[in-house]
């Protein structure tokens, strides 16, 4: 199941120095607040993903950093330098564009060499660096080809080499994999991740695909309507979503709306003790945090409930069940394959770790 | 799938059209170029004398050279005027784009002759330009060089053919994908570098198409030299016209026409070849 982060636990990059800093950055386009007061630090060597739905403002953040747009207010700093006052061609930032934006009249090799040529790099150094960049993306054999002759994946690699050859401090990637088909995308994700580890360049990656964000990132910055909803590592954001929106956007979840009264949480048919203050609450309960209980031995702290299986979705390594715990309250439960069949009878489930989230 | 009969039926009218109005006249011109005029009568006596006269008489070479020179000047001036205009419209005109575009197109609706006579009234000895210069005390006497000179021909033809150069360049510039300009900036190129390395190469097919229009149309023009050219501004088409008219030497006129046709077709082929070389997508 790919919703789980595949990479080993990593140090939170908060310890290392910030390479890029967005300070209260806002952007308005014709009376529309596209970005509202964004503050975000990106550490050196980090792989940070801006995740959000279309229209959430994630591409605007990239365009502000690249210099194609000016912030309406706020500042952008890079290594102690004001970045937002520099024209795009003076920023040590390079971009991999969504549809690659390769120059159609130049060969792959000349595309890669472009950035070095406009900076008058000596010919010998230029040749060596272009070759190195092409080797890095495994495209040495296509140096002479025009972009029109290359496949989507190959164009993607050339776009990556064209940006990296300039040795940027920060690489901006604007949904670079969205134009590729699913298999190629998975493969490119792996290559992108190992490339980033290898060369140590800071990546700011934009995507609307939460699985992609989880699989690749050191940290995820979730944008919602131009504001940051939560910034955390994939594990953290999955295990402890701050809001109901985050919980639903990242992975699958059951949102339980209920209330706490007198040390008892009540969400429909589910009840469990809590020492929190009285009031309305929302809990996020991941489908895999609910288990079928085979025996009757209830642990003291365990929360159990009875429910009937309504639907069963086979998923290869696991199954997703839709269960009804009475009064029309349905929950999604992920169980190992070989579990109960739909409509047979009631089962006893136990749940653990419901996470309280804000609205 | 279409039936054979349907295909024949559809392709017949254009073939008849091209045959009657293009190939047949060309064949007639070519046949005439191999005939002769003796004692005021055209005789169907097949020979190459007209082509020999064309190559040996320096008069024709001088006029042909002048014609090419004028056509090249017109092409250059039209590009120098049309390219910046197209560039401005494509990248910087914003909301004024439509209006400016129409302003470039509108002169094409005005008759060629009217525009020719307009230049006559502007450039003549008692014309607008001379009057203005004398009013400013920049000149004492009317400047005769303005009218009836190769200069006047270049000016008038540039005025007439600049829209023809503008249009294909504008179309090419409009089709330059805007992300490429951002990519160029992103890779460290200044605006000037972006122009030379991205915009100009990508607009080259349009530029070549426009240049071919201007050069070929100027090469065969006979009204501009007739109206504002004077003796020093005579072009090859005027020679052809007088040979077919007053001089009554159709065979020699036809031979020159064939010569111009060969030059024109070669140029069109060259233009086509270059445009293909510069086409990318």
Describe this structure in words.
The complex is a heterodimer of chains A (359) and B (281). In chain A, a hairpin with a 2-residue loop joins strand 9 (219-224) and strand 10. The model of chain A is unreliable at 1-15 (pLDDT under 50). Chain A has two domains: 13-240, 3-Layer(aba) Sandwich (Rossmann fold), CATH 3.40.50.300; 254-357, OB fold (Dihydrolipoamide Acetyltransferase, E2P). Chain A contains eight helices and 20 strands. By secondary structure, chain A is α+β, with helices and mostly antiparallel strands. In chain A, helix 2 crosses helix 3, helix 2 packs parallel to helix 4 and helix 3 (123-136) packs across helix 4 (152-164). Chain A is elongated and about 75 Å long. Chain B is an all-alpha fold and 281 residues long. Chain B has a single domain (59-278), classed as MetI-like (MetI-like fold, Orthogonal Bundle). Chain B has helices at 4-33, 49-56, 58-91, 97-105, 112-123, 128-135, 150-174, 178-186, 191-219, 223-229, 236-244, 250-278, and strands spanning 36-38, 41-43. A two-stranded antiparallel sheet of chain B has the order 1-2. The model of chain B has no long low-confidence stretch (mean pLDDT 90). The chains are: A alpha+beta (359), B mainly alpha (281). Chain A binds chain B through residues 66-68, 87-90, 93-95, 97, 99, 101-105, 114-115, 117-119, 146, 148, 162-163, 166, and chain B through 177, 179-180, 182-190, 193, 197-198, 201-202, 278, 280-281.
